[in-house]
């Protein structure tokens, strides 16, 4: 197993506390370079395996354990459900190929924000970062932390009528991850290695055990469909949900500055990690669709379908086992998002788009600790207020929109940027990116037609960043 690399400065920050007046001296951040050389403002400490763990954990949260039940209710056909998961896999792997080229060309911390700024200028890049803060990472972290507490209380049943115990567990998980990632990339990398490998082994055990049980009980692979035929609009919405479950394959680009030789390793991490997750998703769905009928899967969709399947195969204790796996999976996702998201706000602050206070790197831990705390404070507010649910309703639509925009940057970057032998080049250009952009745009249009109210909320969230852009930016520092 690949070890987390260490830089020359590995001292840890003792007693890291707020407010900001308690921070010791801070190192100024540097502006990004558009040359071949990666960003050197933070030490390169992790190799491909640790970065892949971040990607895998960021993709695999709780969605794969619940989404198939909702699809069974809305679609009623196991073959169609598997087909949509396969289409989502192809879309994600193709997207990872395009993002692999973007990351190879611009190996700087910030991911989508960096690519959009280089291709289309600062305003669109700022709106992407604003969306990442409010929805992409902020609301997702809050929702994941709340999900963690709800599944933890399935493992150890606790009466919590007021919901404060759940919120306390959520905040404990969030701030434990925050503290660990503030202590340095090395410490955070070790945490991610442990969480990801443990949950992948647990999910692998669930898949192998489920397939063995299905074969042993002579159950048919893929149960019979329900007679009703779904509409095209219903199938499109289901594909949006599937696509949302695959989102996260671009996360390695956000932490590019923390990865050894990102020009070479980013494409491998994105493509290989995404393909690995796709195999896990398809095998899990085979287990689900073989263990229970469509009618059984569609009942009580609020209960994780994986838990119902485990209970059917192994009894009540199987459901509790799956709840434990869910806790591991979600904890890994929270850790990955706590690592990746703050790199966006740090890059934005470094470019003068938001407060320079967030553009600082701590001299002992060499991480953007202030940006990490900034995201966790927002997520904590969402946890305590419960408003993350409203944000998540339309998050898939908004994130799909920015994904389409980011995928389209490859056309401009190939026209305006220089090409180096070390650059990874996405295959099937321009057919692959055109297909992906059109596919993402189709998902956005379908969502607007099917969910106009949520679309309006999503547009309002994105557009609310425009006045903030003109208030916060420092024109003398903007270059594009």
Structure report:
By secondary structure, the chain is mostly helical. The protein is built from 19 helices and no strands. Helix 3 crosses helix 8, helix 5 packs antiparallel against helix 13 and helix 6 packs antiparallel against helix 14.
Name the features:
68% helix; 19 helices; disordered C terminus; disordered N terminus; 480 residues; mainly alpha
Round the Cα radius of gyration to an integer and report it: 22 Å
Poorly predicted ranges: 1-42, 476-480
Into which percentage range does the β-strand content fall?
A: under 5%
Largest sheet: none
Global outline = globular
Mean pLDDT: 84
Proportion of helical residues? 55-70%
Beginning-to-end CA distance, first to last residue? 42 Å
The total count of helices amounts to 19
The secondary-structure element order is: HHHHHHHHHHHHHHHHHHH
Extended strand count: 0
Quaternary structure type:
single chain
Q: Which class do the helix and strand fractions yield?
A: mainly alpha
What's a quick, concise take on this entry?
With about 475 residues, the chain is mostly helical.
Task: List strands and helices in order, with pairings.
Elements: H1 48-59, H2 67-75, H3 78-105, H4 112-120, H5 122-155, H6 164-182, H7 185-216, H8 232-246, H9 251-254, H10 262-291, H11 294-298, H12 305-314, H13 316-350, H14 369-385, H15 388-393, H16 395-416, H17 431-450, H18 452-463, H19 465-472
Helix pairs in contact: 1-7, 1-10, 1-13, 2-8, 3-8, 3-10, 3-16, 3-17, 4-5, 4-16, 5-6, 5-13, 5-14, 5-16, 6-7, 6-13, 6-14, 7-10, 7-12, 7-13, 8-16, 8-17, 10-12, 12-13, 13-14, 16-17, 17-18
